[in-house]
Amino acid sequence: MNQVALVGRITKDPILRRLPEGRQQSSFILAVNRNFKNQRGEVEADFVLCTAWGKLAENTVKHCGKGSLIGVGGRIQSRTYEREDRTRAFVTEVIADEVRFLATKKREDENLYGESAGRPQSEAVNGTDEEYVKAHFHLTEKEKEELPIF
Fold it and tell me: Cβ(109)–Cβ(120) under 8 Å?
């Protein structure tokens, strides 16, 4: 049995890629907190490469930005490829069958394909912390209750 279920935050805006055969693909890294603290009392995280295909990739890129909390269900896949310097690289990733949007955050870059042209300037944070969170995060009532600013 090869099944994986992860909940974590996307580390940067995912990018949608159109492959020559017309398929769509997106890879993103998910920061998943460990459920224990280290000797210094800090929670550590693992950074897991995830890949989505087709409509799932398109929806993930469209609705999730850096910091979005998502759940990913899928399988682990390993592969190898040869780098330009002729060394072999090994990759282990989660191939997503399902992505659940738990607390999405707006993308920093509205360009879904990651091209450098048209990157918007970062907006100034005006107003209260509460207004900023409401404008940039989609939180459940339970998550809002746990925030110190509400």
Answer: yes
